[in-house]
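Predict the holo structure. Ligand: NAP.
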Amino acid sequence: MTKPTVAIFGIGLMGAPLAIRLLDADYKVVVWNRTPEKADPLVQIGALRAETAAQAVQSADVLITWLADRVAIQEVLFPAERASLLEGKTILQMATIGPSHSRGIEDAAIAHGTEYIEAPVLGSIPEAIKGTLQVMVGATPEQYEKHLPLLKVFGENPIHVGEVGQAAAMKLAFNQLIAGLTASFSLSLGLIQKEGVRVEQFMDMLRDSALYAPTFDKKLVRMLERDYENPNFPTRHLLKDTELFLDAAAEHGLTAACLEGVRDIIAIAMAKGLADTDYSAINEVIHPPKSST
Ligand code: NAP
């Protein structure tokens, strides 16, 4: 089967490694980014640069959105003058957005004669590079089968979650856990350090217990060393996803007071200038260094 030409909208932390995977898998890849120079390294290894988003839409069959949020997706793909260009294309939406937002974009796509599927992912830059992302697909069974070869470039076993909106919901369910587990771990670690308990003793017992989550060890050194540079997933995206989950919880009548507290902590971290650091920087709010208490 002929491989579709793929355009990637958004050459950020995730869009860039995924463009490389597509090039390595011999796809023809068109790249567009609001800040064009971020696409330069991809152009040097064989991607085709689109000067405008409209040109990217025109030159590809599948339009992959790796943009920050729903607003960016709407601004890039759905301005009125672009309506006719979308006809007959497929939008493959991979960023983290809310279930109702994804369903809204599906409605807009269908109105433009465009196929729409969602495929948010669990995992970050290392998994994107290796092609081991956990891909969650919201689509009809037929769409899932049709686009499986492309989805497999990103992760070995893309999971068909259900219809559009359901994969977005599953992704938010995971990211709610990222927010809650990270805040909880930082809080416990803070007490351990304040009381002078040996951190290794705490970690050894934690690792042997039912309370352990691997993310704790992934964030331990960052929190102990207060080093949040070179993020895979920045604080600003965790705030976005926490707010998306709170919106969905409100829509469904779920009590999410615990997550509201975490959201407030993340917002304080943002105000402290930690928007672009690794999200484990919420540790600086939960357990601030001595000088700032
Ligand atoms: P990122 O590095 O911040 O990149 C965001 C991209 O969106 C950039 O290309 C940016 O363009 C573009 N953008 C933002 N606002 C725009 C607008 N109004 N118009 C046009 N372009 C706009 O983000 P990322 O980490 O790649 O994440 C992208 C999405 O995937 C987010 O929804 C995130 O939550 C999700 N995600 C991230 C990870 C991760 O580990 N990083 C994992 C899973 C899912 P500029 O370069 O011009 O700013």
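The two ends are 62 Å apart (CA to CA). The pocket of NAP is lined by residues 10-15, 33-35, 38, 66-69, 72, 75-76, 95-96, 121, 124, 232-233, 237 (CB under 6 Å).
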